[in-house]
Design brief:
It contains 8 helices and 23 strands. With about 400 residues, it is α/β, with parallel strands linked by helices.
Length: about 400
């Protein structure tokens, strides 16, 4: 008898594992995850796990609040301590125009229950006294309740829970084909082996565009490398996660173990699958961070790594069933927010798969929204560049989205 499954999930990262857990909880029969390497081998094991509600659009802020609530109950749901803590989050702003632009965002946050605050330069320096004296900050925006997750703990908790609930995880299993017949999904191929299924979920992260092509679909996702360094642990001195509002400058925070975790974006990073970290990044990141905070200069770097953002042109994910190929579901394009968004969004996607009804919070993430749009030159390497322009409306959302 040919092998069959009720759903095949391509990708064993946080999205694929979380979806498997949610589907099994809802009673779906055979749930099979196919992972070409090992679980968490992509971005889910190569990130810093910032779980922040301080977003720059109303849609994302509402969703991020729900995602934080998901992390608050995750330990009870999965039976594991996933090391979620409320570190707080601070944007450092360098121009008066940046601070002015934040005022309307602050009003939106307060309307939704996010108690962020705008700080003046003196308040920032009192809050982060290790900044270089005279650092020309124009102010900051802070949310003291924003969170951080230990990504490995979350991935392992979902992996263990998926197995306990009866989902099957097949590692080292590369999908080579997706069978589409009669206008809908019929199965997947693993070389000479085939698996019959009415549903395939593309949760392949940086490889999502290639998986979509196997189903005859074109999506505009592109992988972009992001690199990270980690220092030796020191006595805690920084309770906030910091980001320089200009992302090509960088970000850093201190972990529960006392390590400083930091990154600086290369604006000229070419798209492509690349998980090799580089000396050029180490030099660029160290130079910038010491310039901003001289107290870091004596800390030895003990390791570094690289992972890939799976980036869409509007920096919003693709989540849901494709109208072009029924039975083919997208769960990708997280654009750097996979650890934040995926667990709760997969809860919503599981409801959509089981009931056939689209949850309202997923409407901005229509997987077919880029069809028939001119996307030439659409990829933005500057993560916040779009915030400096007027928002653009996405089809079918009824909301203006900037990120």
């Amino acid at each position: 008898m040919a092998e069959a499954a009720d759903v095949v999930i391509v990708g064993g990262g946080i999205a694929g594992l979380a979806l498997a857990v949610e589907l099994r909880r809802r009673g779906l029969g055979r749930v099979l995850i196919l992972e070409q390497s090992y679980v968490g081998s992509g971005a889910s094991g190569r990130n810093v796990g910032r779980i922040r509600a301080m977003q720059l659009t109303e849609d994302l802020t509402r969703l991020a609040l729900a995602c934080q609530a998901k992390y608050e109950r995750m330990g009870d749901e999965l039976g594991f301590n996933v090391l979620f803590w409320r570190a707080g989050y601070l944007w450092l702003l360098y121009e008066a125009a940046e601070a002015a632009r934040m005022r309307s965002i602050l009003e939106m946050h307060h309307r939704l229950g996010v108690r962020s605050e705008l700080l003046g330069p003196e308040e920032v320096c009192r809050l982060v006294p290790h900044l270089r004296p005279g650092e020309p900050v124009a102010g900051g925006m802070i949310h003291a309740r924003d969170g951080i997750i230990h990504h490995d703990a979350a991935v392992w908790a979902y992996f263990e829970t998926a197995g306990r609930l009866g989902a099957e995880v097949r590692q080292g299993a590369r999908v080579t084909g997706i069978d589409v017949a009669g206008g809908r999904v019929r199965g997947v191929s693993l070389g000479p082996e085939s698996i019959a299924t009415p549903r395939v979920v593309n949760a392949a992260g940086a490889w999502a565009e290639a998986v979509a092509r196997l189903a005859g679909l074109s999506i505009p996702n592109q992988p972009l490398r992001r690199e990270v360094l980690v220092t030796a642990p020191v006595k805690p001195f920084l309770h906030l996660a910091l980001t320089f509002y200009r992302p090509t400058e960088g970000w850093f925070n201190q972990t529960l173990r006392g390590e400083v975790v930091a990154g600086v974006v290369d604006p000229d990073e070419p798209p492509g699958v690349n998980s090799a970290s580089s000396f050029e990044f180490l030099s660029r990141a160290a130079t910038l961070l010491v310039r901003k905070m001289p107290a870091l200069a004596h800390l030895p770097v003990i390791r570094q790594w690289a992972g890939m953002y799976d980036v869409t042109p509007d920096h919003l994910p693709l989540v849901g069933e494709s109208r072009r190929v029924p039975g083919f579901y997208q769960a990708n394009g997280w654009s750097g927010r996979g650890m934040l968004l995926a667990p709760y969004c997969m809860e919503l996607l599981a409801d959509e798969i089981i009931t056939g009804h689209r949850p309202e919070l997923l409407r901005p993430f229509d997987p077919d929204r880029f069809v028939s749009r001119d996307l030439s030159g659409a990829l933005e390497r500057d993560y916040y560049e779009r915030y400096q322009r007027q928002p653009s409306s996405l089809p079918g959302t009824g909301q203006n989205l900037q990120e």
